Amino acid sequence: MKQELVDRIKNDPDFHHLVSVRSKFAWTLTIVMLVIYFGFVLTIAFDPSILGTPLSAGAVTTVGIPVGVGVILSAFILTGVYVRRANGEFDELTRRIKNKAKGE
């Protein structure tokens, strides 16, 4: 019975759609985060003077501080974007797949 259920789910077009859409979305967010992170790291490596520039004349805080905080916040924001979509669209597709597999 269990293998039959697994086969039914694997052959469901909604399951294929869910896997495809969720994977593309996850990879897109991953690439965005990697570009942000490595952009920050490469800027530090190859032109640290950009991030070492004071925010204003005589200021102790440099441009790198808010940019670094932005890198950290971007991770939280991208996680929130994923969770919001997962709780909406992805959960609905999963519920539909489960109901079809149960025969409802």
Question: What is the secondary structure topology, with strand pairs?
Answer:
Layout: H1 2-10, H2 13-46, H3 48-51, H4 64-102
Helix pairs in contact: 2-4
Structure described in brief:
The chain has 104 residues and is mainly alpha-helical. It has 4 helices and no strands.
What is the approximate shape?
elongated
Task: Tell me which oligomeric state these chains represent.
Answer: single chain
**Percent range of helical residues:** over 70%
Order of helices and strands: HHHH
Distance between the termini: 17 Å
Number of domains: 1
Query: Could you describe the largest sheet, including whether it forms a barrel?
Result: none
Number of helices: 4
Rounded to the nearest angstrom, the radius of gyration is: 22 Å
Structural category: mainly alpha
Tell me the strand percentage band.
under 5%
How many strand units? 0
The averaged pLDDT comes out at 92
Low-confidence stretches: none
Give a quick set of tags describing it:
104 residues, elongated
Give an account of the 3D structure.
By secondary structure, this protein is mainly alpha-helical. It has one domain. The protein has 4 helices and no strands. α2 runs antiparallel to α4. The longest helix is centred in the last third of the chain and has 39 residues. The protein is elongated and about 70 Å long.
